[in-house]
Amino acid sequence: MTQQPWWDEASNDASGAGNGQFVPPQAAGAAGFAQGPQFPPPAQGFPPQGPQFNAWQYSADAAPQQAPEWVPAPKPGLIPLRPLTFGDVISASFKLLRTNLQVNLGTSVIVMLLSTLIMGGAMALMYFVAYNRLEMSSSYDSSTISAGNATLMIVVQLLATLFAMVGGGFLQAALSHSIARAAIGDKVTFGETWQRAFKRLPAVLVSLFVQALFGFLALVVVMAPIFILIVTTGGDLGQRDNAAMAVIVMIVSIILYIGLILFSQAIYVRLGFAPNVAVLEGSGGIASIKRSWQLTRGYFWRTFGIQIVVSFIIQNVLSIVIGGLYMLALIPLAILIPLGVAGTLDNSIVTVVMIVLLSILFLLLTVVTALSTIVQYGANVLIYLDLRFRKEGFNLKLQKTTEDIAAGIPVTDPFDADDEARRLGALAPAKQPAAPAGYPQPRMGYPQPGGMMPPQQAPGFPQQAPNFEQPTSGFQQPNDAWQQRSWDDGQGQNAQ
User: Do the beta carbons of residue 369 and residue 314 sit within 8 Å?
Assistant: First the structure.
């Protein structure tokens, strides 16, 4: 008997499909196969697929979501309150020529005129005195008077240098305060600027003196080898026998001179922000030197590049303007002087015209020099602010200050920060006071009656109930030291 295949067995069902063909269970239905779970059809109008989502629209009724827009940093004044780019520093430096110009230009012109008149008057008086002494001297004491005149010239030159340093320090202090305030949109007055400059002038002068001292020491280091070489040759480098030594001295002098220039520029870059620190942060002279060195650490070449570019632009523009002014002044003089010599005009008229023209030229040169000084000092202040923005996040504090000013909230000086905040960029957390030495730490919990505390057991085990029964006279003393101490405490309390 041939075995019937299983699909033939499945064909003997109620459907009558007994033709030996396979009938799937779905076609057989209830005639031999159990139906699986039946699911209702989707509701009317429901899409056959799930809702489609995208990044900006999650339903047909909701408004489309827009991507967050970029918001620039606030710019309440001269610069945006963010780390500055090279273009920001250059453009803002020249924008100072129309920012609070009455204070900046007025202060610069007044200080320069006073410095020039005082130093020029002192030099003129010195030459007048020296000339009269030589005129009245005889052949016997002429050498002594000449030596005295040389000493007088040296003293006057030193005094003029010190006075120029004082005037330059005052001008730098005044412009630092005014320009830094302009960075946050604050317009200062003459009185406020001069008061701040006079107050911080001693610290500024100390910082400038330290920079000058470094430069003098560098000059001594450069000149000492040259002096030694000249002395060893007897000062006679022009002889044929010393020609090789003369070449050596020349090469060494050139190398040392280049080294002096590079060292002086490096000192100016690293310590040049000390006057700004002394004025804006209220630091002392030596502290401002250290602070300037710290700010420029890691940003030497960037600072050097910006200062070189600004100086190059200023010097070229200044030379062109000054040359044009000289040409304009010489044209009338070239016309008037021959007329006066020929006698067609009175010499007094020519003299008066020349004095007027030279005075106008002097005033114009002073104004032009003052404008270049504003740009030069302004670039230093902006670089100083940029260094604080990058290293300390100082722009965030200035943003908060400008917001408080706009809201009418009283604010303090935003440039004067704590020493720890200057070093770390944020306020250090306050230290908790330490516990006095020599005192035991208190125990946790409360003492049990009778001076006994139940021993602590490991978690997860039932706690043993404390036994507060008083020991009898024949109670055996425990061997454990802790229990012995607790027993003694209990006995003492019972005795009381």
Answer: no
